[in-house]
UniProtKB/TrEMBL annotation:
Enzyme class of the recorded protein, top EC level: oxidoreductase
Function comment: Catalyzes the oxidation of L-aspartate to iminoaspartate, the first step in the de novo biosynthesis of NAD(+).
NCBIfam families cross-referenced by the UniProt entry: nadB (TIGR00551)
EC numbers for this chain: 1.4.3.16
Keyword Flavoprotein: yes
Ranges of residues in domain Fumarate reductase/succinate dehydrogenase flavoprotein-like C-terminal: 488-521
Annotated protein name in UniProt: L-aspartate oxidase
Length: 555
């Protein structure tokens, strides 16, 4: 490698919980870390933030693990958390990956607290715990009422900017990754665009922690940056993706009325509102989930979202309502327990004191993603993925509420450990200067893409709609520019939409968050579908052997 090459020990793409946890841990172990952050420089008071982490409301699902100082619910255990996770995952969550992730949760949360994150506590000083859909007990810790993600992002942002041990993290803001440099089958660097200029930075280990894909849809709970960047980067680098058809629709995204169907991020009404007594009712005041599931409004998220969809179809009314009158009584004030939700309602012109919040299902979380092991290793040596972009097997066909921050924390720490162990691997000469790979991506106009996905690939899907969507996506023209963040995002959305449609078409059954209106039954065997890119085609791939081959080569 030439001396002038921009070289680090570890390059992290993304600045949410998984990326910054990995960056901080690796830097504390002495690594030179570069973080490529698509958003602006971190500022806690910015009105719109760029990571989904910041917007996470409910909290972190975590089992205390017998700590006498903080016992939690005595009925809880990692086994029970695992069993809830597997039940929510609709047969596709992988116990072998999920158990160690869940078991490491408490230690990871303590690490986060040591970095300054503060969680809500009871009058006795114990961690407060709430309940969300699919959880058998109250095990979800939270911060600032419903501002858990914001508290975590603040702690991580402060730690990156002012590390306690003098370690240095080189955060490059407004830098969007355009490609992973792969040489001799290994990931050795990242190409990125910053200030209209293309650059490359090289390292033996690259972590994709780019978050989700909510902006595949016209309305989503996700911030503007959730444009599937990491899925596209990984596919183009040769990694496999799986379970992409499982896009989780949150049952309670704020409905803004026929005239208010604005494109982009909409306020989420946390499941914790139902955990504290909120009830879903249709326009006539009838329960939405009665007789649907024994856990009622606290059934797993796919079940509740589908019940909301069914209620909307049955009544012909465009939304259902979250009745929060019981919450107000139980907690001594909806506004103080749920300040983030309250602020979102007020900003959208909805009166929180009315006791009835109009809601619809909204695109919220990508359960599938880049196939990795429980340490974030993909099938491409040197390339890791963690957080929402990754598919570790924890979520299966439907993520259990509040398991995602936990996964980002735990796998972020493990990814850092891998990076530390690989820091001295040489990078051969000859890659520096490989700023562009010269390929011209397919790019569909974003509005057309979002409308296509919203119409044909949302909660309920069928073969005709998926075929129509595939036809529109396959017709996307190739476009070299204008080169900028928007163009890179649109190319990522286009490739990812094609992959989601291919995965949804291949799954001719209803399972988890994938509802096939033309195949309402669930097949006896649960099988994950993986894909890879072959030239411009998405082709079926092996789930396990690809990853295992990569893992062997990682070590
Ligand atoms: C919520 O607070 O309802 C969202 C939490 C999550 O998506 O895990």
């Amino acid at each position: 490698m030439t001396d002038s090459a921009d070289r680090a020990d570890f390059v992290v793409v993304g600045a949410g919980i998984a990326g910054l946890t990995a960056a901080i841990r690796a830097a504390e172990a002495g690594c030179r870390v570069v973080v490529l952050n698509k958003g602006p420089s971190w500022c806690a008071d910015r009105a719109e933030q760029s990571t989904s982490t910041f917007y996470a409301q409910g909290g972190v699902a975590v089992v205390t693990g017998g700590d006498p100082a903080d016992p939690g619910d005595p009925a809880d255990s990692v086994d029970l958390h695992l069993s809830d996770t597997l039940a929510a995952g609709a047969g596709l969550a992988d116990a072998a990956s999920a158990r160690p992730i869940l078991a490491d949760g408490y230690d990871a949360v303590w690490g986060l607290m040591a970095w300054g994150a503060e969680f809500d506590r009871t009058a006795d000083g114990l961690l407060s715990r709430t309940r969300e859909g699919g959880h058998s007990v109250r095990r979800i810790i939270h911060a600032g009422g419903d501002a858990t993600g914001a508290a975590i992002q603040r702690a991580l942002g402060a730690r990156v900017t002012r590390p306690a041990d003098g370690s240095q993290i080189d955060v490059r803001d407004e830098a969007i990754a355009t490609g992973v440099v792969v040489a001799d089958g290994r990931a050795v660097g990242v190409r990125y665009l910053r200030g209209g200029v293309e650059h490359a930075v090289y390292a033996p280990t690259i972590l994709l922690a780019t978050g989700g894909a909510g902006h595949l849809y016209a309305a989503t709970t996700n911030p503007a940056g959730a444009t599937a960047d990491g899925i596209a980067l990984a596919l183009r680098a040769g990694a496999h993706v799986a379970d992409l058809e499982f896009i989780q629709f949150h049952p309670t995204m704020l409905y803004l009325g026929p005239g208010g169907a604005a494109r982009g991020r909409r306020t989420l009404i946390s499941e914790a509102v139902r955990g504290e007594g909120g009830r879903l009712v249709d326009v006539d005041g009838r329960s939405v989930t009665d007789g649907v599931h024994p856990l009622g409004d606290l059934a797993p998220r796919d079940v509740v979202a589908n019940a909301v969809r069914a209620a909307i179809v049955r009544t012909g009314h465009p939304c259902v309502y979250l009745d929060v009158t019981a919450v107000r009584g139980a907690t001594g004030g909806f506004e103080s327990r749920f300040p983030t939700v309250t602020a979102g309602l007020v900003a959208s012109g909805v009166d929180p004191s009315s006791g009835r919040i109009p809601v619809v299902p909204g695109a919220h979380y990508l359960c599938g993603g880049v196939v990795t092991d429980a340490s974030g290793a993909t099938g491409v040596p040197g390339l890791l993925a963690a957080g929402e972009v990754a598919r570790t097997g924890l979520h299966g066909g439907n993520r259990l509420a509040s398991n995602s921050l936990l996964e980002g924390l735990v796998v972020g720490r493990r990814a850092a450990a891998l990076a530390v162990s690989r820091r001295d691997l040489p990078i051969s000469d000859g890659y520096a200067g490989a700023v562009s790979d010269g390929s011209v991506p397919r790019v569909l106009d974003r509005t057309v893409l979002q409308d296509t996905m919203t119409t044909h690939v949302a909660l309920g899907r069928d073969a005709a709609g998926l075929g129509a969507a595939a036809g529109i996506l396959d017709g996307a023209p190739r476009s070299a520019g204008p080169l900028g963040i928007r163009h890179v995002e649109d190319a990522a959305l286009t490739l990812t939409a094609r992959a989601v449609i291919a995965a949804a078409a291949a799954r001719t059954e209803t399972r988890g968050s994938h509802v096939r209106l033309d195949h309402p039954g669930t097949a006896p065997d649960a099988v994950s579908h993986a894909f890879r890119l072959d030239g411009d085609e998405l082709v079926p791939a092996d789930l396990v052997p690809g990853a295992v081959a990569g893992l062997v080569a990682h070590r």
